Task: structure prediction
Amino acid sequence: MKEQDPIVFVIDDDRMIRDGLQSLIRSVGLRVETFASAQEFLGAKRPDTPACLVLDVRMPGLSGLDLQLKLRDDGIPIPIIFITGHGDIPMSVRAMKEGAHEFLTKPVRGQDLLDAVQKALASDRALRQERREAHEIRARFESLTPREKQVLELVVEGLLNKQIADRLGMSELTVKTHRAHLMEKTQAESLAHLVRMAEKLKTATRK
Amino acid sequence: MGRRVDEPSRLHAIARYALAIVLVALALLISLALQNSFGNPFWFFFSVAVILSTWFGRIGPGWLSVACSTVAVMYYFTPPIHRFAVSPSDLPYFVTFVACEVGATQLISWRRQTEDALRRARDELEVRVAERTVELKNANEALLKQMDEQRRTEETLQATRAELARAARITTIGELTASIAHEVNQPLAAVVANADACLAWLSRERPDLAEARAAAERATEGATRASDVIARIRSLITKATPEKSPVQVNRVIEQTAILAQGQAARNHVAIELELSPDSPIVLGDSIQLQQVILNLVMNGIDAMTTVADRPKTLTLRSESQGSGHIRVLVQDSGIGLTEEVKSRLFEPFFTTRSKGMGMGLSISRSIIEAHGGRLWAESNGSEGAIFQFTLPSEDRPSA
Result:
């Protein structure tokens, strides 16, 4: 199995539901791992692949909502599909506010769950892609010297070489040299590309 | 006759005076007739007339008869005859006669007055007794009515209380219903998930029969579990009305200990009994009380499964309390209760076990409360928990 194969984590304290969901998800060719409790899930090693969580809200010990908060606090972004016996409104509101991907009520129709799983995996794939890109951009940006970073900031602001040279107290030629270096290091194909990358990095940092 | 004379009407007064005159006239006629026949005057007939007049006519007619007699005697029988005068020689005789008449009238009237007073008193007494009797009768009737009313009030109260108890029970059951729905929904969710999985395996390009069969078997298992849950709930609700009769608490505890012995032995738990020596009695449903104690005992045994560093002991204790209550304690040396667990223990379907239904303590509390008692839990120092309940105790039967 390739490392990039997506994986679905099913956490439910009820063995029969767990096995049913696992079988159902497996039948469409997805990889499934099951856990009887939130603690068990937290203790397990998770491969670095697109994934999503199918989570029972009501469980002894750490509840589904508790796990959601814990994952958020630990900075583990993984889309969660909640399954609840009686989807009471305050609980669903709370879960959705905390970024739950989907909220399904028991008994869940197989197709609904599979659709939700596919959507969640697609979303995680996109997020991971975004994160990876941001990560790469950050790595490239990190490789810049302090001087180059200063120049970059002003370039992105839209200043001309002459203005930058004035602002930083250096010759226009030096600015041009720095600029050529930073374009190379960040693998920017154009000024527009550089600005887009800087923007993406800012957004990712804010997240 | 005496009663009629007593009646103070004018007609009677006239009749009484007329009687006096008639009697005197009668005495006069008899005396004249006898004097003509025998020569001696028979004055004592006048005395008879006076006595009768006074007796029947009272003092007024008495004096009238005295006056009439005196005049008649003076005129017809004392010399000079046919004149209203008395000769000096006859005077003492005449005076004695008058004095006798007066004395007799006086005495008789006094006697009659006394008698009348007595009779009146007696009559009054009778009237008063009658009045009192009526009063008593009224009071009695009022009392009876009051008692009747009270009985009816009590009946109404009883009915209301029963209604209230039923309502309370329905409320408790109502509270449970939402959670019961969850408990039934859980296996149904398993059925749906597995049935969908089964279909999915079958509708693949190359159907995977082994996977489909496994899923179908799990679906069947889920359906069986759902029907088990329903059966359990049904038996629970049909048994909900406690049939109360005197129950020996110690005996229930002993029976429960015997029932739990197997489970305890499998878990290496020793059950110890510390029963109150005065074998207290409560009014209740022994089956339900046994369910409660058994539930607490099983919980206690479960709480000690992971204990390894100390003896696993489950103590069942009963105590009579001064306030007409008995207390039953179930103490374990298990993992104890965290504050969080303690605060949610009695919530329906709260459980710390993956297999637990989470209804035991909630139902136990309903049962104990239906028996007029209280059920609560405490931490047993650093190790274990104490679950205890109180029940109002009955007086010991005299036997």
